[in-house]
């Protein structure tokens, strides 16, 4: 899904919601454990219940890897279930030297090689340009680079002062020279709403992937106040507060209700900026 | 394998060699493709041929993930084939917010959960302390934090000047407060030999995992000149120049010869410092 198609979906659905599929098998409703692949079954029902309210799904790779082969199989089958009207983001936070990053790109972008073809992948910036560029070699795929993360430890290095602003600002400025806003997004945590204004100086119309709304305490209103751009420019992720809204048989309906609440808020926010 | 046991193995084998199992299925001898799991067969023969000459094996996760489920299975079976006399390092360069890092730790440290129980994992530092600590919660396991990587792009951010030295020096100083040299190692590329002297100021007796000798152009002599510590303190990795020394039926013997060359050099270097 390219930038134009993504913006189109945002207009159609009046939503810039990303649903995080952090599917912890310990937390899904017990009755699903009778299915051959409980995690896949859970994800399919979540997707069926929410795909008209969101524009992206983001499985976090860790929750699948923790279960070994069974988990990897759930991830592959989930990736193939994400509908074409939604951006498929693998939250993998990879990054390695060039020839190795190419292998990671094949793992998540090249269906013939791995069985998966996500539209986008999250990447850690520490190893620099040649760890990122192999992902950009895949046409029409996105790199979503970690800039300012929502966790407490994000402060340890990301806020360090450098000659070109703080480290996360330096990362954005440098990465802007690797690809344009049609191939690159940045991760900016919702728990740092006051920083969005600042980040928009360096990335005025890039899409920002924003985790941390909901369970982590970030506010959608605050994020949008400073973060919305001309082309919307935000994908706001919510994971636990949607997918684990209920642990009963009604989990999918309850997930839909939670997604609907966020989508309704987003609709108003988009109207306010005349999008 | 704890620090004492690792140092013991270095003394017994007169070696601080780590063999990188970057097993690209495109590069292994063609006759292996008749086996049920060609990559596993390749790795087993490499391990059989070299385990008395090296103290660690390091599969890079990317080469396995690129092959989807088949690759993940090769990785699990390889992890279980690494002998107890060698440190099993998964080169995965992970890192995420706390509860998610716990899932990554389960993926690579918790056999009951994932089928794998490596001794050590490489971690990217960008997300800070709470992305690293969940791995340290697993007793007797090691975190190997990226500090100064061997690739060209490593310069993009790692050399940035901060109030506490360059970024990679800052990373080492901060990470020293998260765990001692019995639980934490640092990745320092062999292509930056001149920096070892400097790094030893901050990590005088930590083990450093050193990629980049061989195919990437780093020199073992140079690395040891500045990098060897009282307790050896180095694990020097070589991947392609050992495992792909031959593409014929003699690949394992040729791998042994290459490993033996490095081990012999290491034996002399260890003698020189009276280890």
UniProtKB/TrEMBL annotation, chains A, B:
<keyword id="KW-0665">Pyrimidine biosynthesis</keyword>
<keyword id="KW-0456">Lyase</keyword>
<dbReference type="InterPro" id="IPR013785">
    <property type="entry name" value="Aldolase_TIM"/>
</dbReference>
<keyword id="KW-0210">Decarboxylase</keyword>
<feature type="domain" description="Orotidine 5'-phosphate decarboxylase">
    <location>
        <begin position="16"/>
        <end position="255"/>
    </location>
</feature>
<dbReference type="Pfam" id="PF00215">
    <property type="entry name" value="OMPdecase"/>
</dbReference>
<protein>
    <recommendedName>
        <fullName>Orotidine-5'-phosphate decarboxylase</fullName>
        <ecNumber>4.1.1.23</ecNumber>
    </recommendedName>
</protein>
<dbReference type="InterPro" id="IPR011995">
    <property type="entry name" value="OMPdecase_type-2"/>
</dbReference>
<dbReference type="GO" id="GO:0006207">
    <property type="term" value="P:'de novo' pyrimidine nucleobase biosynthetic process"/>
</dbReference>
<dbReference type="InterPro" id="IPR011060">
    <property type="entry name" value="RibuloseP-bd_barrel"/>
</dbReference>
<dbReference type="GO" id="GO:0004590">
    <property type="term" value="F:orotidine-5'-phosphate decarboxylase activity"/>
</dbReference>
<dbReference type="GO" id="GO:0044205">
    <property type="term" value="P:'de novo' UMP biosynthetic process"/>
</dbReference>
<comment type="pathway">
    <text>Pyrimidine metabolism; UMP biosynthesis via de novo pathway; UMP from orotate: step 2/2.</text>
</comment>
<dbReference type="InterPro" id="IPR001754">
    <property type="entry name" value="OMPdeCOase_dom"/>
</dbReference>
<comment type="similarity">
    <text>Belongs to the OMP decarboxylase family. Type 2 subfamily.</text>
</comment>
């Amino acid at each position: 899904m390219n930038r134009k198609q993504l913006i189109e979906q945002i207009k159609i659905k009046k939503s810039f919601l990303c649903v995080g599929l952090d599917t912890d098998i310990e937390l899904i409703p017990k009755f699903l454990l009778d299915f051959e692949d409980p995690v896949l079954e859970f994800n399919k029902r979540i997707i069926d219940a929410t795909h008209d309210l969101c524009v992206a799904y983001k499985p976090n790779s860790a929750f699948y890897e923790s279960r070994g082969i069974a988990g990897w199989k759930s991830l592959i089958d989930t990736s193939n279930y994400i509908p074409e009207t939604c951006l498929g983001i693998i939250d993998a936070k990879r990054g390695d030297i060039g020839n190795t990053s190419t292998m990671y790109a094949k793992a998540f972008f090249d269906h013939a090689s791995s069985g998966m073809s996500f539209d986008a992948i999250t990447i850690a910036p520490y190893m620099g340009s040649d760890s990122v560029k192999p992902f950009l070699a895949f046409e029409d795929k996105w790199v979503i680079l970690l800039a300012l993360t929502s966790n407490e430890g994000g402060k340890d290095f990301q806020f360090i002062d450098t000659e070109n602003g703080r480290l996360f600002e330096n990362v954005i400025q440098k990465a802007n020279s690797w690809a344009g806003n049609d191939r690159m997004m940045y991760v900016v945590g919702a728990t740092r709403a006051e920083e969005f204004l600042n980040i928009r100086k360096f990335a005025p119309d890039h899409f920002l992937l924003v985790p941390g709304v909901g369970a982590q305490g970030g506010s959608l209103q605050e994020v949008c106040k400073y973060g919305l751009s001309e082309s919307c420019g935000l994908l706001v992720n919510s994971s636990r507060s949607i997918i684990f809204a209920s642990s009963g048989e009604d989990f999918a309906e309850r997930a839909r209700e939670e997604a609907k609440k966020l989508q309704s808020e987003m609709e108003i926010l988009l109207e306010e900026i005349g999008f």
